[in-house]
Amino acid sequence: MSETTLSGPATTGPEEGGTGAPAGTGGRRRDPAADPADGIGRRVAAFRTERGLRVSDLARHVGVSPSLVSQIERGLSRPSVSTLFAIAEALEVPVDAFFRESDGPPAAPPSEPGPHAAPSSPAAEQRYVVRRTSRPTIDIESGVRWERLTPTALKNVEFLELVYGPGAESNSTLYRHVGEEMILILSGELDIYLGFEKYHLREGDSMHFSSMQPHRYVNPTSSTTRAVTTILHDGDWYATPDNGR
């Protein structure tokens, strides 16, 4: 595997096996079972039940064991990125269906409007604006957190802020899905494995690639990494694990 550094020499660090914590946990990994507000498992179970599927049926569609599906539904395990994509495809729902809405109403606008502008109404705020404290979120396996940056789900596009805790990874193996990805590193560093290449990105670096290329994200450092990504889905999409490097 060759390596490409987009900004200066690469920093050494773990390349596999994420053990990081989501931002705001002080470096401590949270116990998923002690975080009922996360709700991914509850939503998976609800969609599965609505479709008349057994745990074993969903597991077969996703390509994982029934015990893993059961653990996800009970909040004992978090899915990887590729597993979450595969579950969404099997249940015929967008990934946005699994986002946890924020607690409480959106924060008030931070400043007064200009002399010729009327203050925005609460309804307009909810339609157009996402305050930092009101983002819908998903906490995924190995210290990865997604924060949606749009007020509602958009058709065939995801606009997200990604938070990768120390050592966190998107998936243990390469995976692919229909579409394109664009990513900008806001802070920290991120290794992006793309086929047989590894690209090391630092703050301010950006990258664009076809999501059909097998890929995975890894934070190789002991600090939290934040990035903004746009994922364009070409109609119906799917996630396919790819064990080749």
From TrEMBL:
Entry GO terms, CC: cytosol
Assigned keywords, A-Z: DNA-binding
CDD domains given in the database record: cupin_XRE_C, HTH_XRE
One Pfam assignment: HTH_3
Superkingdom as given in the UniProt entry: Bacteria
SUPFAM superfamilies the UniProt entry points to: lambda repressor-like DNA-binding domains (SSF47413), RmlC-like cupins (SSF51182)
Example GO molecular function: DNA binding
Gly residues bias (residue ranges): 15-26
Keyword match DNA-binding: yes
Repressor in keyword set: no
Domain HTH cro/C1-type: residue ranges: 44-98
Compositional bias of kind Low complexity: 114-125
InterPro entries associated with the record: Cro/C1-type_HTH (IPR001387), Cupin_2 (IPR013096), Lambda_DNA-bd_dom_sf (IPR010982), RmlC-like_jellyroll (IPR014710), RmlC_Cupin_sf (IPR011051), TransReg_Diox_bact_type (IPR050807)
Region called Disordered, residue ranges: 1-43, 99-127
Protein name as annotated: DNA-binding protein
Organism listed in the record: Phytohabitans suffuscus
